[in-house]
Amino acid sequence: MAPSLARRLIALGSADPERAERFLAARELAGIDEEVLLAGLGVAPDPDTALVTLVRLLERDPRLRSTVEAGLARSESLFRLLGASEALGEFLVRRPEHLDVFDTVPSAEPRGASPAALRASLLRSVGADPAAKRPVAARTGTDAYEALRVRYRRHLCELAIRDLGAASPTDFLPTAAAELADLAAAALEAGLAVARAEAAATFGDEAVAAVALAVIGMGKCGARELNYISDVDVIYVVEGSGGAGESLDEAAVLKIGTALATGLSRAVSGMAREPALWQVDANLRPEGKDGPLVRTLESHLAYYARWAQSWEFQALLKARWIAGDGDLGHRYEEAVAPLVWASAGREGFVESVQAMRRRVTEHIPAAEADRQIKLGTGGLRDVEFTVQLLQLVHGRADDSLRVRDTTSAIAALAAGGYIGRAAAAEFDASYRRLRLLEHRIQLAHLRRTHLMPLKKDALRALARSVQGVMDTSKASPESLLDSWHRTKRSVRELHERIFYRPLLNSVANLSPEEAKLSPEAAQGRLAALGYRDPQGAMRHIEALTAGVSRRAALQRQLLPVLLDWLAQGVDPDAGLLAFRRVSETLGATHWYLGMLRDSAAAAERLCHVLANSRLIADLLEVSPESVAWLGHDRELAPVPLDVQWQEIQSKISRHEDATSRMRLIRLIRRREILRIAIADSAGLLDQDGVGHALADADQAAVLGALRVAEDQAASNGPLLTHVLVVAMGREGGREIGYGSDADVMYVHRPLPGADHDAAQRQAKEIVASLSGLLTQPLKPAVQAERVLQLDADLRPEGKAGPLVRSLESFAEYYRRWALVWEAQALLRARPMAGDDSLAADFMALIDTVRYPQELSAADVTEIRRIKARVEAERLPRGADPGRHVKLGRGGLSDVEWLVQVIQLEHAAENPELRTTSTLVALAAAERLGYVGEAEATLLAETWRLASRVRSANVVWSGRASDMLPSSRRDLEAVARWCGYAPGQATAFEQRYLQLTRRTRHVFEERFYAAG
After folding, report:
1. Are strands 211-217 and 232-240 parallel, antiparallel or unpaired?
2. Where is each PII-uridylyltransferase/Glutamine-synthetase adenylyltransferase domain found (predicted)?
3. Do 893 and 757 belong together in one domain?
4. Number of domains in the chain
5. Full-model pTM
């Protein structure tokens, strides 16, 4: 059964099918095949409006029937236009003589009309000669205004037909916008011709002919990206020229020029039988509404030189001669262009543009905020402000960016590497989609609006309109709004990422010569910035920027700023060399240079670490992909131990040979050390966090190595024993730095039924294999990398004792032979890897040793003797005791030994002291009253600073050292890593020496009073 007519009309998009049925039965449509009519209504964005207007047009001119009866092939453009624009339908009802506009079937890939043809057509409409230098209209008054506007709207209909019939409306959009601007320019030219004729009645033909008036298009008209209906922003420039013009004084020239500008505006938007086209807006002129309507070129330039604000230069970016005297107009363009492209160098320029965009958003009425296509969040202004800011900042040094229209500017920014290709493609597509929505909304009633409709019927018609020649039955208000919201989110995300890119401020502050990175400018600048080898630095720069590739273009864009950031480091020359090496490895990737361009945090962090850390620079050279972490703080968060261990187990399960398995384990550890060091340099980790994270990386590696060693042993026969690795010293306290070795002890326990001698031999094999596996060469090798050395010298009997003992052997030894220094060493013992049950039993065993019920006077004396011996024998020959951070006066050893004596004396009755952490134990000792509050604060500060110096030595030079540097350059590097500002090395040195002197005094009073 065939569906009813009402149902078919609803399916076609009719909002009022009953009314539509009545109009289909109108006598004007009698005899026309209903299927032909329904097919036409099916392509109309608003079939109800199209049907009503069609009936009215047939009433005015029945000859239109032949077009409708010919079927969709001939009438498609008719139905599309009538259903998309009620206003143009009304124009055709008023002017049925222009219905021949539908006689030509538009192409699916239409072209724009010639600007010259449009100008000639509109000039002829007012009876002016298009070939004249300064055309004068033969028609004046409302007769001329009406003729001009009718001809304009005729051309507007021709454009709308091509636009609505385009296979891809977004592809055609730049062409349509350009033609709209050209049509507006032609209307202004015709309006000026009318104004000349009218002004001649007042001032005389010769006087008017002697005054040159140039109309400068601004905004969208200047950029040739105008809307269907929009105010046309203009600036007027005037001068007297030739003949009678030479006898006119400036006041007369300005008076005539004002009359011409006023008459031009009246011709376009004054009262007449044919409605006004649009408003001619001259408020972007100097001084805005308060300034004179017309000025001479010299007056314009004087204003821009002295009084213009930053936003005015942003507006002048679009300035283009569009009507009137071409010579004067082009001279205006040439004169203001240098001012536009130098404006980004003005103080606070970038911030002022950003603030202006925020003000625009803040002033949107609350009721319109969610409907704004142009001004709202994620709207057209977000795209335009972003693109214009990038153009103005980078266009000083790059002429390719000096274009006016937005789509061409986006393409130029992408070609130059200022926006990533993907971001540029999304920006361009989003901009076209938003402009298309704006065009279609305005086309409906030819009213200046940028608001998304509220009514569902209007939304449905808009959805069908933006579909182009595709199947309009799939268009719906819901799909339209969903697409619009996605576009807004995309635009806003890109706007926030690019428009507020901190790199823009840095580029804007460069001189044009610096921004261009010319060899002459660079040589002097490098020396001034502090590069010790400017010629060598230039070789690196030339290697990075040579050629015409996108990679070279991005490097040229980044380096002027990066050179400055590198120069803020201690060794900018080494930093630039490291940057070159990293870039040569990663420059061809799709993300590296784009990340540095888009993330100032990443770029500045990279420069900071490369110029201040040999350790990080070397690690990045062999793991360059880690640069990706720099732009995201979350990527620099230390990976927890359990996650590292899970990753290690997963990776080694896929390999059989020990060498491959250990390589993976060591690569993971290397990666985590690099992550920790970068996070440390960025201030994302405190000192305790660094120690814990480094200890976790070591523990994960030892866990993996022990698994590999046990698997090797198992391959030669059954496992006979469990092995436990016990962390000692700073490793046990999780207080290690970048240069620390891992002090350990090895414990084993034979499995039930295993031969004890065989188990002991297997345990020794596992331990020997474990140590060797961790120190295998890792290729590519990194000189600055700390290989994990396991030091077992703190075991019972020291170097003379067996490397690994059974739990029973440890118990017997500690029961019969343990010395006080061994109890002291056990204070920091912590299970690191191995059997959990064995670990628990071992910890229970040593707790009775390291937390004695009583510390005898002899034990105290022995501790003091050993401390003095360590200071006398282990301090390097010739070393300044005041600068040795570990064994020197007031150094790490003093703080740690004092805290450990307090633990030995009081931990048995005070569980708070039972910790492997020096600082945690010190804090507990202060709470318990064993040290004063001021003393504890001093000891903790000194310990932290000394620990930081040890790590800073490794980070800066790649080599471990326990000495506070004497070299000024090394001291400067260490001071910065310790949190001091550039140039504060001496203050840092004095602070360290002062703290350690005071700490030594506290140590001597407390340590030698112990017991």
Report:
1. antiparallel
2. 355-499, 866-1005
3. no
4. 5
5. 0.72
